[in-house]
Amino acid sequence: INQGAIDAPLYGQELANGDVKDTFDPYFYWQVDYIKSLAPDATLCWNMTFACEEYETGDPRYNECDLRWQYKNWFNFNSHTMYDAIVGAVQKYVLPEEEIEIILPAATVVQNVRSSYRGQTLTNDLTHLDDNPENLHGRYAVALTWFKAITGADLSDFDWVPADNLTDDLPMIYEAVNNAIAYPLAETESTYKVAP
Length: 196
Known about the structure:
Structural class: mainly alpha
Helix content: 25-40%
Number of strands: 3
Shape: globular
Largest sheet: 3 strands, parallel
Order of helices and strands: EHEHHEHHH
Mean pLDDT: 82
Radius of gyration: 17 Å
Strand content: 5-15%
Number of helices: 6
Distance between the termini: 46 Å
Oligomer: single chain
């Protein structure tokens, strides 16, 4: 950092601690002050960690979920409840910090995609976005959200996809990304309810 090699340091919060005050105060504020003391011109970014997907009784991935206790006891396996806690934490702890210049609404874009024909299934273990080429929709939507939030780029001319099976889904993904950028602290229902 003190060599000027980092332009946009990124902050975020673990899923399970999305609204736990002790995990923000005072550590988050100390880090912000420290980074700005080393790189006063750096643009600080906050990534809104996404909510776990809805749990269905008998889903074998539950036993692989490293946050299952918190997800069950704090959020009742409900992605909307968890998302609301993430938004609440951003409103209470992050937005008041004037040094954070860019909010990366990963949580919001994931919820937006989940409201489409893709549904909840964007992870491989309820908590990590899937890296299977057949199910990259969540990862790609988050990547495009970061790209657009940081660069301000228009996605309409951006048609590269990491896997061919995403090509038909681009309109749905672009809608989710554009709505997340426009409304970073609110879910926007997808207009794409039927798969192409």
